[in-house]
Amino acid sequence: MEQAEIGVIGGSGFYQMKGIENSRYLDMDTPFGKPSERVLLGEVKGKSTAFISRHGMGHKQSPSEVNYRANLYALKMLGVKTLISVSAVGSLQEEYKPMDLVIWDQYFDNTFKREKTYFCDGCVAHVSMAQPTCLELSDLAYNKAKAIGIDAHKGGTLFNMEGPQFSSKGESHIYRKLGLSIIGMTQVIEAKLAKEMEFCFLPLSFVTDYDCWHEETEAVTVDMVIAYLNKNVENASKLLEAVIESMDSEKKACNCSQSLANAIMTDMSLIPEATYKKLEPIIKKYVKK
User: Fold this and answer.
1) Does residue 209 carry a catalytic annotation?
2) HSE-up of 153 (CA within 13 Å, CB side)?
3) Active-site residue 211, yes or no?
4) Would you call 96 exposed, middle or buried from its count of C-beta atoms within 10 A (0-12, 13-18, 19+)?
């Protein structure tokens, strides 16, 4: 099996990885199904990198249809330890303007149609989501974004709606009153699964609109989102290269790689063989059978 140390998942508008060299596509399968798209494997600034288009090339899968578990499992199979998630989001507060980058550190999950855990079928684990992102990587990305000239915000709370419809004005105003920062449809599920995978997780959320609450701007439309997406893709590509180039390949000071320690509740002798086989890449350092 080929290997990669860094995984990148690209969202709406970010369907291809720029700056990747010696690239080739891998058609992968996992115990949780096939990833959204073939995995693009190559090197970015000398570091082995795997890229997956979250919605598939041509945007064929809605946020509710994406096989998040297969996407992250495929990256785990390749040996990925760091996951960078790129997404388009709407702003719920005046200070987050279209074209801004938000590196959020908290979330509110309002989805109800997604598979959000690998732990089922006779094996239970409860990982802590108190700190869902890697603060060390967030600091690095924030500093690199500022150096490039991107208006960046570190911290904030992402509201993950189910979609695929955009918000009503009533919903948007309620989200604002709750103090939520930005709104999107995908990244929280990746954060939850990344924690179970013990990945260092870095969310890069690029603002495309003010949802529909802002009285001085028109309500979000697909045309509006696409226009800003095209502008944001260039910033996202530059930032990814800068962050990947600066990543320390040595062991990080964070504890992301220990997320599952003490989280698996099931007696190892009771875990069904078929379930253990599916979860082995995730749990083998804690559970031996």
Assistant:
1) yes
2) 22
3) yes
4) buried
One of 27, 151, 211, 248 is an active-site residue; which one? Answer: 211
Could you give the CA distance from residue 47 to residue 249 in angstroms, rounded to a whole number? 9
Q: How far apart are CA 79 and CA 187, in angstroms?
A: 21
Residue type, 111: T
Q: Is the pLDDT of residue 220 over 70?
A: no
- Closest Cα to residue 135, out of 259, 260, 256? 256
- Which residue in 121, 151, 209, 223 is the catalytic one? 209
Whole-prediction pTM value? 0.95
Q: Among 33-42, 113-122, 162-171, 231-240, which stretch is predicted with the lowest mean pLDDT?
A: 231-240
- Return the closest-CA partner of residue 8 out of 48, 63, 57, 46: 48
d(CA 164, CA 55) in angstroms, rounded, equals 12
Q: For 171-215, how does the pLDDT look when each residue is reduced to its tens digit (9 = 90+)?
A: 999 999 999 999 999 999 999 999 999 999 999 999 988 988 887
Beta strands in the chain, from DSSP E residues, in sequence order: 6-10, 21-26, 39-44, 47-53, 82-91, 101-103, 106-109, 152-154, 157-160, 182-184, 200-209
